[in-house]
Amino acid sequence: MRLTTTRSRTPSLKSVAIGAAVALLSGLAVNSFAASATGAYDKTFLAKAADAGSTEIAASKVAQGKSTNAEVKKFADSMVTDHTKVADELRQLASSKQVKVSDEPGAKHKVELAKLDGLSGKQFDQEYAAKIGVEAHKEAVKLFTDASQKATDPEIKAFAAKTLPALQHHLEMANALHSSLTK
After folding, report:
1. Rounded Cα gap, residues 32 and 11, in angstroms
2. pLDDT (tens digit, 9 = 90+) per residue, 86-106?
C-alpha cells in the first residue's frame, strides 16, 4: 500500500508573515500618499491667497508711484514689503505640497487694477484705500481665518494662523487710512 502525503492547505507561518509585511507596507504607502496629497480646500486656499497677495502687491506698487499723499505711500510701502514676504512663504509652502500658484493677479483683479490705474489724485488715494486697503483685507482676513480652522493640511493651517494677525493689523491700518482720506 502506498502512502501519499498531501500538502496542508493552511498557510505556513512564513507566508503569513510575508503577507502581513506586504499589507503593512502597502498601507504605509497609501497613508503616506494620502498625507502628502493636498486636499481641494487647501489647494483653493493657496490659489486664492496667492491671487490676493499678488493683487495687493501690484496695486501697492502703483500707489507708490502714483500717490502724492505721504500716508498712502507709507501704507503702500508696508503692503509691498509685508505681502512680498508672505508671498514668498506661500510659494515655498505651495511648492512643498506640489501645488502651483500664480504670482500674478487673476483676471478679475487685473480689471480692478486697470480701473485703479486710470485714477489720479485724491480719487486714486480714496479708491486704493477703500478697495485694496479695506475691502481686500476684509476678504483676506476671512480667507485666512477660514483656512486656519478648516484646512486639512497642518502646515497650511499653521501658515494661515500665523499670517492672520498681520492681515488683521493691515485691515486696521487700512480703515484708519480710509477714514483720514474721506474727511
Report:
1. 30
2. 999 999 999 999 999 999 999
Q: Cα angle at 88 between 107 and 162, to 5 degrees?
A: 100
pLDDT digits (tens, 9 = 90+) for 123-141: 999 999 999 999 999 999 9
Could you give the count of Cα atoms lying within 13 Å of 165 in the half-sphere of its Cβ?
2
Cα dist from 182 to 57, 126, 174, whole Å = 23, 7, 12
DSSP string for residues in 120-153: -HHHHHHHIIIIIIIIHHHHHHHHHHHHHHH-SS
Helix (H) or strand (E) holding 31: helix 13-36
DSSP structure class, residue 97: T
Distance of CA 89 to the CA centre of its chain: 9
Please, what is the angle between helix 70-96 and helix 154-181, to 10°? Answer: 170
Cα separation values, 85 from 18, 53, 66, 73, 111, Å: 51, 10, 23, 18, 25
